[in-house]
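Project outcomes to date are best conveyed with an example. Our students and postdoctoral researchers have been running inverse folding experiments weekly, and each run begins with a structure described purely in tokens. The record below, which covers 489 residues, was selected by the lab manager from last quarter's runs and is presented without edits.
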């Protein structure tokens, strides 16, 4: 049986565990075998600890055999982006800077997963410090798109998306600062959700841009994404930006909320630069909702054209200050060549950071420097407020917005590596949600002619994740794209 388990959804596996048809050990063995069989070509994992995962699986089986009532994630393997702290495991952010660093503590999201009995499974590849859209900025290895290994999986959580798409874990966690969950989810044909800013504690998530970063789930289905979010959401004293709010039962919300909804189509998300195949698939999704009785209205988010510019000022400013801690003195790469303290900072940082991280630190330092602060950083903050205002105004009128997740399906490896601006533009449709702090989900909504997945993005009101899950689930139930898997040799 074990070999047939790796593409099951977490919800299915959970039901079978409950009825004692399978064991967690069988599930974990099947994902380990699958990972060993395909990860040589997919490259989703930076590292994994087979023995640790099997020990956790056996502990879960033992809990179950003692007749204890267990939560739905107990015994389910979950892949982890290599930016989240797991006690005793390497934490590299795919950077030479963190090299051999081993985390001394658990991130809050990880602690919660462990309390839920989940099996923490491996460290997933990413763009260095989560800066990028293709996972090509990893200093460790290349991850490819399981649907076409000549193409990128998206980024920065490329490993998290590819591992679910390739059956190497039924669930994974990623982080999203400007689209890093939703964009790779769209390009790899899986579900990915960025929660409202403040819903999930960032404690133990290595900081890139603290006012934008959120942790979120990858899964095959909307229900599975809801299950995983349920486990990690909630206030945490260790993150002063985490919100005190009641967390609803998301699976109940999916059942209870059936629409019809009023859905907005922001015209700025359907302009020039949108690939015709993506446009067609998203328009078909819009028509599906109309046929379900939803009211579809045109809306405008007039400051959208400034989103990418504002993001690359605010995100780089915050990164330049967050990354100042990597000085070669404490836990990071320490240059062996240095002759004095200043030389140690310079050399350690020059050797430890890759080119994109350096570009961001330089940009961010520039926009914060005296004389330029008002012209760039302060102005960007003001425009950010306008962008948030656009969304909140739209949500006075509609329940959610439907948009493409990405301007095009997955592009080819190397296609944009020499052109940072083109790379930055692949976040055009995802960045707004981070600037506004609102939740967004990407679900598969079709394929291009060459067989690459296309994603539909649904954006919602702050803390209305339940609405997004319900709206997304309606589409998923009628289309079943989630049941299609790439053919990997
Ligand atoms: N691609 C965007 C960037 O490079 C977003 C990254 C992210 O969400 N972590 O900054």
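After processing, the design step wrote out the following sequence:
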């Amino acid at each position: 049986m074990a070999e047939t388990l790796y593409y099951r959804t977490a919800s299915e596996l959970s039901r079978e565990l409950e009825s004692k048809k399978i064991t967690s050990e069988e599930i974990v063995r099947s994902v380990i075998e699958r990972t060993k069989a395909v990860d040589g070509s997919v490259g989703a994992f930076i590292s994994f600890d087979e023995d640790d995962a099997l020990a956790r699986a056996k502990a879960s089986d033992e809990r179950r055999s003692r007749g204890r009532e267990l939560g739905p994630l107990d015994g389910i393997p979950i892949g982890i982006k290599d930016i989240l702290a797991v006690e005793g495991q390497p934490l590299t952010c795919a950077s030479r800077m963190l090299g051999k660093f081993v985390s001394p503590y658990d991130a809050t999201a990880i602690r919660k997963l462990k309390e839920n009995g989940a099996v923490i499974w491996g460290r997933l590849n990413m763009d260095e410090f989560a800066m990028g859209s293709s996972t090509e900025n990893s200093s460790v290895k290349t991850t490819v798109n399981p649907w076409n290994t000549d193409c990128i999986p998206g980024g920065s959580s490329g490993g998290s998306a590819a591992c679910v798409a390739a059956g190497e874990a039924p669930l994974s966690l990623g982080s999203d600062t400007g689209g890093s969950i939703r964009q790779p989810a769209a390009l790899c044909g899986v579900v990915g959700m960025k929660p409202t800013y403040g819903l999930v504690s960032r404690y133990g998530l290595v900081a890139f841009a603290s006012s934008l970063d959120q942790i979120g789930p990858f899964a095959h289905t909307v229900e599975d994404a809801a299950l995983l979010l349920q486990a990690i959401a909630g206030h945490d004293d260790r993150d002063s930006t985490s919100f005190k709010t009641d967390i609803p039962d998301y699976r109940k919300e999916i059942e209870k909320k059936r629409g019809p909804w009023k859905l907005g189509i922001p015209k700025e998300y359907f302009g020039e630069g949108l690939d015709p195949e993506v446009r067609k698939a998203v328009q078909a999704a819009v028509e599906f909702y109309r046929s379900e009785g939803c009211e579809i209205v045109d809306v405008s988010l007039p400051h959208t054209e400034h989103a990418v510019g504002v993001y690359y000022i605010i995100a780089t400013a915050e990164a330049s200050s967050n990354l100042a801690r990597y000085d070669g003195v404490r836990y990071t790469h320490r240059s062996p060549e240095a002759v004095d303290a200043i030389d140690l900072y310079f050399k350690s940082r020059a050797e430890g950071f890759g080119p994109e991280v350096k570009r961001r630190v330089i940009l961010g330092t520039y926009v914060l420097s005296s004389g330029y602060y008002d012209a760039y950083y302060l102005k960007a903050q003001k425009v950010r407020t306008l962008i948030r205002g656009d969304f909140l105004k739209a949500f006075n009128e509609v329940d959610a917005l439907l948009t493409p997740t990405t301007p095009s399906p997955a592009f080819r490896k190397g296609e944009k590596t020499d052109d940072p601006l083109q790379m930055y533009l692949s976040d055009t449709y995802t960045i707004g949600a981070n600037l506004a702090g609102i939740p967004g989900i990407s679900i598969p909504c079709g394929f291009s002619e060459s067989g690459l997945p296309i994603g539909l993005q649904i954006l919602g009101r702050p803390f209305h994740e339940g609405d997004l899950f319900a709206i997304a689930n309606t589409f998923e139930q009628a289309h079943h794209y989630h049941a299609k898997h790439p053919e990997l040799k």
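The radius of gyration is 21 Å. The mean pLDDT is 96. The training component of this project remains on track.
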